[in-house]
Amino acid sequence: xxxxxxxxxxxxxxxxxxxxxxxxxxxxxxxxxxxxxxxxxxxxxxxxxxxxxxxxxxxxxxxxxxxxxxxxxxxxxxxxxxxxxxxxxxxxxxxxxxxxxxxxxxxxxxxxxxxxxxxxxxxxxxxxxxxxxxxxxxxxxxxxxxxxxxxxxxxxxxxxxxxxxxxxxxxxxxxxxxxxxxxxxxxxxxxxxxxxxxxxxxxxxxxxxxxxxxxxxxxxxxxxxxxxxxxxxxxxxxxxxxxxxxxxxxxxxxxxxxxxxxxxxxxxxxxxxxxxxxxxxxxxxxxxxxxxxxxxxxxxxxxxxxxxxxxxxxxxxxxxxxxxxxxxxxxxxxxxxxxxxxxxxxxxxxxxxxxxxxxxxxxxxxxxxxxxxxxxxx
Length: 378
Known about the structure:
The protein has about 375 residues and is an alpha+beta fold. The protein folds into 4 domains: about 1-60, no CATH class; about 65-75 and about 300-375, Beta Barrel (conserved putative lor/sdh protein from methanococcus maripaludis s2 fold); about 80-90 and about 215-300, Efflux pump adaptor protein, beta barrel domain (Elongation Factor Tu (Ef-tu), domain 3), CATH 2.40.30; about 95-210, no CATH class. It has helices at about 5-55, 125-155, 160-185; strands at about 65-70, 75-90, 90-95, 100-105, 110-115, 120, 185-190, 195-200, 205, 215, 220-230, 240-245, 250-260, 270-275, 290-305, 310-315, 315-325, 330-335, 335-340, 345-350, 355-360, 370, 375. The strands form 5 sheets. Strands 2-11-14-13-12-15 form a 6-stranded antiparallel beta barrel. A 4-stranded antiparallel β-sheet has the order 3-10-8-5, with no helix packed on it. A hairpin with a 2-residue loop joins strand 17 (about 315-325) and strand 18 (about 330-335). InterPro entries: BSH_CzcB-like, HH_CzcB-like, RND_pump_MFP. It holds the Pfam family BSH_CzcB. Keywords: Coiled coil. It comes from Breznakibacter xylanolyticus.
């Protein structure tokens, strides 16, 4: 047998001796504890017997002090919050109908304007010259037509001359009307009554029909417009109640959803809702942020409790109840089924009955059958 092999065997024997020593220590400790337990039990029994003989009752275990809450039915709702913006039915941008260079701006930002009022003028010099020339030609053609018509009524001249004069007159009349309409395009007019809130126009600026030149708002009829996620399309309908708040001016009010779009935007998978507001209040501004708090779930009669009272084990979710038993109160684990939760509260759809006492303070660490002191209710 080699020296190395002898060393291996020695190490193994030493390990066995150590393990045996550890096990012996544990066994000895266990025996000692059991002996102490027996001695304590005997002391307790002897003291109880002596107290009973002396006519004194032994000390009672008063149990764990807890606070309970009775199970009652109440209204419960779940809300979603979405951000929208304040708008008016007639808040819009103004586009010119013609194109040209601005020669005069007739209003300034903040001015009240009426529908059809001129906001700015464009350079119409070339167009007006064309109009004046066509007007002269029209006047001549009209005079010729009147004369030719009189002759024709007297059976003088040919019908062809009369028809030519009439055609010339009507063609110039149509051209004159077209030029007159184009001249009106050189006036940028307000399409609604309201206030000018944005006016980027300056004299000398070139504008075209594709370019917004002003913003006119009318707060006679107000609304909040918001995009709501597609997931709520079946639970949010026109007529649902909604709370509208404006964080910037610290104001809120109750209203209803006026309309909920039937169209889902394919880009952001949302649909639009509109909420009508009463007449304009002080502080409202176009495009102001508004927060809509919409109830997407309501249950008028439900068991509701704080979500932090619910515990979980391998079987599922449960709460601790205080139940009368053996002349006192004892803890009982009650398994439940949760429903919708909101703002720290949860609906309990199964597992509870009315007037049961749910432990709200002191429930941590309780087990089935734990003796409880006379619980206080809140």
